[in-house]
Amino acid sequence: MTSVVSYDARTGQVLGELTAHTPAKVDAACEAAAAAFGPWQSAAGTTRAALLRGLADALEADREAVVALADQESALGPVRLNGELDRTAFQLRRFATLAEAGAPFAYTDDPAVAGPPPAGHPAMQRWAVPLGPVAMFSASNFPLAFSVLGGDTASALAAGCPVVVKAHSGHPLLSAKVHGLAQQVLAAQGLPAGLIGLLQGGGRDVGVRLVRHPRIAAGAFTGSTQGGAALAAEAANRPRPIPFYGELGSVNPVIALPAKLAADGAALVTTLAGSITLGCGQFCTNPGVIVLIDQLQPGLDAKAVNDAFVAQLTEALRPQTPHAMLTRHMRAAFDGGIAHWREAGAELLLAETAPEGQPPKPVLAQVSALEFIAKHALREEVFGPASIVVRCASVDQALQLLDAIGGSLTVTVWGAEQASDEAQALVRGAMAIAGRVLFSGVPTGVAVTAAQQHGGPWPSSTRPETTSVGDAAMQRFLRAVCLQDAPAWLTQRAGRPL
Amino acid sequence: MTSVVSYDARTGQVLGELTAHTPAKVDAACEAAAAAFGPWQSAAGTTRAALLRGLADALEADREAVVALADQESALGPVRLNGELDRTAFQLRRFATLAEAGAPFAYTDDPAVAGPPPAGHPAMQRWAVPLGPVAMFSASNFPLAFSVLGGDTASALAAGCPVVVKAHSGHPLLSAKVHGLAQQVLAAQGLPAGLIGLLQGGGRDVGVRLVRHPRIAAGAFTGSTQGGAALAAEAANRPRPIPFYGELGSVNPVIALPAKLAADGAALVTTLAGSITLGCGQFCTNPGVIVLIDQLQPGLDAKAVNDAFVAQLTEALRPQTPHAMLTRHMRAAFDGGIAHWREAGAELLLAETAPEGQPPKPVLAQVSALEFIAKHALREEVFGPASIVVRCASVDQALQLLDAIGGSLTVTVWGAEQASDEAQALVRGAMAIAGRVLFSGVPTGVAVTAAQQHGGPWPSSTRPETTSVGDAAMQRFLRAVCLQDAPAWLTQRAGRPL
After folding, report:
1. Residues A287 and A142 in one domain
2. Which parts of the sequence belong to the Aldehyde dehydrogenase domain (chains A, B) (predicted)?
3. pTM of the entire structure?
4. CB-based contact (8 Å) between A467 and chain B?
5. A52 vs chain B: nearest CA distance in angstroms?
6. How confident is the model at residue B37 (pLDDT cuts 50, 70, 90)?
7. A387-443, pLDDT tens digit by residue?
8. What is the C-alpha to C-alpha distance for residues B67 and B172, in angstroms, rounded to an integer?
9. Which CATH number covers residue B227?
10. Is A247 a catalytic residue?
């Protein structure tokens, strides 16, 4: 591939064409990042904060043009994209505050203890140091917040690491524009251009070459399980392996207990239908699996309650008209995913096929827990406005279902307000496979906070012990170094690398 | 392999023979660990502490027999082994204190913020949860402190994870004995036997099957780069990949600046010779590379100072009589490593060959920095009482040398007491590749403290952002879960898993 074509996501019309970067350009970007790492790793928190705030300001100053271009390439609409730009600027400023407050320089002071080992030991200080240049792979579905100046870039820069961003093929012109803004900010602040690099193109010549480049010290990725797994394998198979932080696919089960549905069913139907179709279902936290338990409470006809809920959800979804998907490839993959469900024996409650090239219609399917557990195809993420209802005969069966899913960014449990053996068991099962467990609301909408955890066991992440959203995201790009008997000129730096 | 043979490390005599575990036994141990995980993940800090202290007490109570058996199988001698037993008990009790103080249950409370996103968000709590059963691969060179009840086991149990230990083939009888003590403690405390499992045997039927078992949630390993890389690949290539924490090979450069050698050379010779031959050089922090800079200070004849130091070090090493190596395999590998140095053109300053079956003699080699950087064979760890002196023409060349090494558990810098451009550059280069940087003393001796970092970039670890020694070792076995809008019955547990 020597060119990268930008398409209007709604019409398929060609918006522009860029030349894909050559292997030599990939190498040059990595070398420039390595050169920028020298001074940036020792930059003060205020310097890092000034850059991050400058980037946020630049995005906001050019909001109109940025959102318009993002809308053309993604079809996500101006309301969502203005909100996403707000979130992107918020993230940049949040990491600015963290850097300024000294978070990347937090350290443990461990004074000498007299006496022989094991209790006695020399003076030790545990510092954090940045890993080095980070290869960043942009997401398709967040053209701003998980792209050139998204959360990965903000957290890496705050940690002291340059980034080389691989633009997503779904929004090449937007990536180039945002990168241009970033370059203006770098120039205005007297910082090297190599601190934020951008590469266009795909395959072995760009993406794989980037993650295998000797100057790259870590990878960060948001996208499909297949794509992330392939790049993670490249990172692991380098002569010198590096950490690779992949945020991958996720089915985000919502467990709705019958008593809750009996009490609040109508409101939950509206909430859930909105979450399933929001942004045309193109969220990594889209609720893809609805878990209903048919035999829980003796005083309640759980099956009838659940049947009614499913019927109402079907009717609530039917009139929804999602917007166009991000790319034609994703639109085709959505139809393929629904076909897999059908072939695997799922009952399709709602599956009106939209013509090729048009936005998809919402899809709702239903299967028994036994089928869902037995057939891998039913557990695979279908990216788009589709969910599968799984009917469980018991709480135990719901727990087996969670175990079969194995890893998810989120699990939602509706109806666990009061402590009970069932609630405890379900929450425990949810915590065993998820990075975030919700007790009300829907999993779409990932707040940027101190406590956020956006990452869970495989297949939702390559590194379940890390998060790609929230304050802890910065930790991915730091490692510890212990200084033993360090001289005063060094310890007085109080954690700030040389 | 259907049997595991125990040899006397000094005489080669067979001490006993055990039946290797079958694949069915591997599976049973993993299932037992998974069953034990249920209650153990929610065990209180006091319960975890009681087990860890019970294990420490049991080791100490049977000290005489444990040390005698360890000495037969390892040849490490009673002084070292008594010290290692002290350290092992110290580690167990340190993690007991951490568990009791609530370290595994530390959490971030993030109350709701009113208003729309991105600033507004629901109530969130970030908890830590244990990963699950851990596959633990014992080290050859620490038959107690990095074995059945070693640091990995102590930190995993404190975190809430059961362990299945793969005994090292170098000390099968000791492993079985220590595991027997552990089983008595578990029984006395009413805890399931599956909390600490033990497997004997190697290869695909035991080691690989263990790390690939679906019930295993993480791997921990201390040993060679080759062995660790192979198991890390198995962990990464599982249908559901898991974290694999490997502490691998390391050459631990010691950079000695000429002014320091001019002032304290005689004392440093003694210290260094002792560190090179300590425990027959069988430490992962053994100083394998001595870096000397021949042209640093105009007022000093650096080359003459360095020549004198090398001559003194050679003479200090010559009369040393290391004890037998841990296994005959390692003894053969040591001779092979020295042969590689010779073939790669190193000058052998001291290389008296000991007959096969006898303890090795200390070896000292010398090369130029240019040769060392050019030839990979010169940079490979030689496990045993051997070091290679590398002569650098400049500080820049020393920095290139560190870059070529790429990753090391430690780097030691002698002579950086005063701030200078050279000292800053060398310390920075050291921090870029090491987990621990020392400014006095020798890298052998790894204190168990809050600030310790035992792990560095590849090839010294598979996960440079983690440590296998010190308080932070527990973090390897925890991951975060964010609870959003959690009910009071759950938030009141204040981080303690269900």
Report:
1. no
2. 6-419
3. 0.97
4. yes
5. 17
6. very high
7. 999 999 999 999 999 999 999 999 999 999 999 999 999 999 999 999 999 999 999
8. 14
9. 3.40.605.10
10. yes
